[in-house]
From TrEMBL:
UniProt main location, coarse: membrane
Subcellular location: Membrane
Membrane topology note: Multi-pass membrane protein
A biological process from GO: proton transmembrane transport
One of the record's GO cellular component terms: membrane
Name of protein: Sodium/hydrogen exchanger
TM regions (residue ranges): 6-27, 39-57, 69-89, 101-125, 137-160, 172-198, 204-222, 243-275, 295-315, 322-344, 370-395
Residues spanning the signal sequence: none
Organism of this sequence: Gordonia bronchialis (strain ATCC 25592 / DSM 43247 / BCRC 13721 / JCM 3198 / KCTC 3076 / NBRC 16047 / NCTC 10667) (Rhodococcus bronchialis)
Residue ranges of domain Cation/H+ exchanger transmembrane in the record: 18-403
Amino acid sequence: MDKHWIFFLLLDVGVIIAAARIGGAIARKFRQPAVVGEIAAGIALGPSLLGLIPGGIDTWLFPSDVRPLLGALAQIGLVLFMFIVGLELDMRLIRGRERASASISLSSIAVPFALGAALAVVLYPKHDVVDGKTIEFLAFALFLGIAMSITAFPVLARILTDRGMMRTPPGVFSLASAAIDDIVAWTLLAFVIAVISGGSPLEVARIVGLSLVYAAIMFLVVRPLLAKLITWRDSAGRMTPDLLAVILIGLFLSAAVTDIIGIHQIFGAFLFGAMMPKVGAEQLHREILERLEQVSVLLLLPMFFVVTGFSVDLAGIGLGGLWQLGLVLIVAVAGKFVGAYFGARVSAIPKRQSAAIAVLMNTRGLTELVILNAGLTLGVLTTELFSMMVVMALVTTVLTEPLLRLVYPDSVVANDIAAAERRLLGVGTTSRVMIVLPNLDGTPEELVARHRRLLGVGAGHDVVLVALLPTAPPGTVLEVGIPVIPDFAAMASAVEELNAVGSSLVGPTSVSVLCRFSADPVADLTQMAENANPDFIFLDAADIEVATRLSIAPVALVNETASADDEDTAVVCSVDDSRSGRTAILVAASLAVADVRRLVIETSMSRRRLAADLQAVRDRGVEVDIVANVKGALGQRLPLVVSASGTDPAVGIPARPLVVVDNSGTSEEALGDRADRLFLPRSSADSTPSAASSTTASSPEGH
């Protein structure tokens, strides 16, 4: 080894990281996943570009005795990446849509696999010899078939997040199908590798048998042990170095076991990630990903891209190989598209949505490179064919975003989200309130106890229970395509938790739940309110900044710590004649009507006019008193007070259980008309002219 090998190793690492960052930044400029630019940068540092410069700069920069060291770093990065893929795999994603997802997944594997195997008949005579050894046709055909069948779950998840498609039918079904696709495709690849590396039928049987035994041990023994990691993390309150060390030790041991079995180390890494606990482990996953990103994405995966680039020689394809490259692209794109589209249509999914699913399932990205490198290591692919397949992986990934915008534009995404939310909410026959929980930390029982007052405002109304999950702030997204946040399994857990909270509420006429990832709470709550059409939005008092910026519907801030007897006392409303004041009267009236409690209004407004406006409240059995001094009317009791925001909405919030902030257009309507619409039976209210228009307009452009 050259005495300057340390110098070249350090130099190479610096050059590779710089090239990867530049390539990723350029890709993002063109609305492509960063991984596309990083792969292209790796190829550029190989013979395809750097090797074309006279003087042998590529061999000087990457000496032959340093390349194995880069290869070792690349393999460690690959193991970490496959662990992350397994970690992100959560079969809760397919819950409730098993048949359609299985149909899409299996057909999107079977069709390209068959076409890939058929393509092998054409390509085999030209690529049957690798390093002087003749490849068996069966091994060649099987590998080409599986290479055409893969879908990159990480890149697909990134695209869905960027387009806001997580809750659209194409997003839901493609994500669930890709989860099944991961399991089936990696299992098939393990079998194909066993066939290729085993040689004799007896050796193949040994490899397959040992693989099945190891998978069973992981599922039956290791998986229950890994579940204890949640308790360990929660008791410490954070991801400790010891906890991360245990995870990494298990990961590398698992990868080593599958490597010695003969099915490649990537399967041990993937299997260990898949066995990690899923339910209640969102914080654990987030902390694992945040720590591994720094090492895996910034340092080790770029080594993998460059090592891949060393074996890619685009000039070596030549003019004579262009027709072969064309065939590879046609089979890859058409096979996956036709298979996924057919599976979706068989499941009665509409044509446009089926086309969007088919485009999404065509994403290959880094996952395809993992498979291709395995084929190169096993001696199944020639350098020329390997180069063609790498080009195919890049082209199919690059095409996904523009094709998806063509078949499923933003306007259709918005329509589908709005339609889905309206179907979930139903028509409704009473007034509707939207209750926004500030966070979902804790069990459903703990949430109910912590937000007792906030959750109690829904009595007598249709309740829409809302949670906004955080998305990753800039710079915290894994650039190989896997989102640290949003976590789709976390979404499923959040919906389950909201349903549990909703089932414990007392008094609402109905409960619906809505949940979405949000980087802009004001914009997302506005869009959700357009679809839900609530009479009031209730927020925790800590969300005052959000409340002051919402104009889609009146907002009431609920202070859980403000002193008040919420039960068996009057509801007091102390307001002036302002838009927020008039709305505060209606909020107070709705609380009084729900429990048939006395309503006391302290205001300078005309008592006679206000009494007439609130006749519908009296008709519901509520005693309404309009007074000049609330203390004289209540004596020593501590009432539940509803007030309105003034010029500074923060004033009074620490002392008031509920403070109303109304920046909506509904406050311009007559108070009596609004009260009639809220408190008269709907059949009566609908006959009045004022009830002809709803509180807020529902728009199909909901997202």
